[in-house]
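*** Residues and shapes ***
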Amino acid sequence: MPRQQPPLSEDTSALLTQVGSNIDLARKRRRLTVKTLCGRAGITTQTYRRLVAGEPGISMGVVAALLHGLNLEDGLALLACPRTDDYGITLERVRQPKRIREATSDELDTNF
């Protein structure tokens, strides 16, 4: 019995389709055949077609293998990058204490 996929919003589905289109465009720019790229990534052409169609059941491992086959694997590190998480940074700043005290030490300050 096939696994149930979680329901995705229309926006998320569109993003998956866009990722597939981006990978396909990168393949075409490099003048690679689908068969060659799939051989580099160690996947079947059917899996590649499912990714390009935006099917949500494609694993991150397949995406990573394809990016590696295209020499684009550095882009994978940009997913959910903490430096670009403006909303998370804002929430973190709101939760910070208003005043931060210096750590006190038990030694007396003798520098007059």
User: Anything to note?
Assistant: The radius of gyration is 23 Å. DSSP finds five helices and no strands in the chain. The first helix runs from residue 10 to 29. The mean pLDDT is 89.
